[in-house]
Sequence to fold (240 residues):
Amino acid sequence: MINNLIKYATSRRGSGVRPGLSSTSGGSGGDIIPVRRTVIFMLQLTALFFATCGLTATEREQVILNYYSDRNRDAYADLLVDVQRYTTAGAEYHKKYYRHLIGIAGDIVEKKKLSVENGSIGFYYDKRSGDRGKLYLGLDINTQANYDQPFENVAVSLVRKSLRDIVQTINSCRSIFGEGEIVGMVIGWKWSAPGGREHVSVWIPKDDFIRFEDGMITFGELVQRSTVTNTIGRVIRLPL
Fold:
């Protein structure tokens, strides 16, 4: 999340600055696609239900908080943004919800089996708008992998693979999203490519990830309604 474009607010690159300082014709064949989409949508809803085990919002949040302990605080503190680097109210929210942030780290690392980039869990503002009064709770996933495929192919694969799980974890922190200044979440993935380090960021409005978990929109719709930025902060579209 470190590059020459970054401003801490914490800020994100482009639509974001990243943290650290983006017919068939004829016959009945045309009916297959809608049916297939319906089946996929129902499978997504089923997976989300079992992922949360039918827990209430309060119970889900407590699951995250249960990851907080002295041991986990010491183990995961380095995954959080350095509070001294904030230039917005993110510093206040960071201190207020410190246990939640450690809990997010614990859930992502221990349960979701993903590697979180050091210094990435925290609150960000959108550099494109420059509005420091609207913050996003976010983090970066370090894939620790090398890919030689085109950027778009890698980005689509990573987003499909883990965005659902990360949304489920972060959206469990309903107290945080009850704050008026917290308007969404931003999730990034970093990887190595022949030309250097790459990353993609997905900026998701609060209302949309709540609708997604409530089964009101599909995963593809969630991504398409979000703002996606590439390594240089340019807004892109992913074919999901």
